[in-house]
Amino acid sequence: MYARIRIQLVALASVLLIVAKLSAASAQEKYLTTNQKQIVDTVSTIFTAARADDVAKLALIPFRPLQHMLTLEDQIAVLTNARRHLTTGGILGFDVFFPDFSSFDQLDGVEQPEREWIDDEGRTVRRFFLRHRVDKVNQVIYASFIFRTYRGTDLVAEEISPLNMSYYTYPHLRLLLKLSQF
């Protein structure tokens, strides 16, 4: 028998709207390219959409948006906003990017093939990952996705999308949570 638990969710409408927009976009395109500003705005919208007096027992930050918070100030601001909407003893659920540290030994500037699919027009689309550099002090990976579209063996389109990501370690997360008054 399952226990029924009622959980008040903060700004659920905003989250559902964002997911609906992403789903609609991904239905039209086989891949999404999103710049970091849109992601930062999305996370801000989720937490500023709630009234200051809205509190919940549970707050969720799904789909790793914290990886796009490249500065300590942005990371603390998001977590502090989340804390503001939690009751005493409330729970914050989130996931973060944790890289394979052995990949840091690889050379920068080398394209790595990642995915391949056929688009609606029968063309082959290939996605490559290109790491530019790793900032180990600020824990940021600067990289790009490269999307190449082929008709047969002919390259017909190329799109480059920046992908800069913060990565997190356990001590870093503990300090961020402490600075955000968790």
Describe what is shown at a glance.
By secondary structure, this protein is an alpha+beta fold. It has 4 helices and 6 strands.
Layout: helices, strands, pairs:
Blueprint: H1 12-28, H2 36-48, E1 56-61, H3 72-84, E2 86-94, E3 111-118, E4 124-135, E5 140-151, E6 154-166, H4 170-179
Parallel strand pairs: 1-2
Antiparallel strand pairs: 3-4, 4-5, 5-6
How would you describe this protein?
The protein is an alpha+beta fold and 182 residues long. It folds into two domains: 12-98 and 168-179, no CATH class; 101-166. Helix content is 29%, strand content 33%. The protein has four helices and six strands; from the N terminus they run H-H-E-H-E-E-E-E-E-H. It has helices at residues 12-28, 36-48, 72-84, 170-179, and strands spanning 56-61, 86-94, 111-118, 124-135, 140-151, 154-166. It is elongated, with a radius of gyration of 19 Å. It starts with 11 loop residues before the first helix and ends with a helix. The model is unreliable at 1-17 and 25-37 (pLDDT under 50).
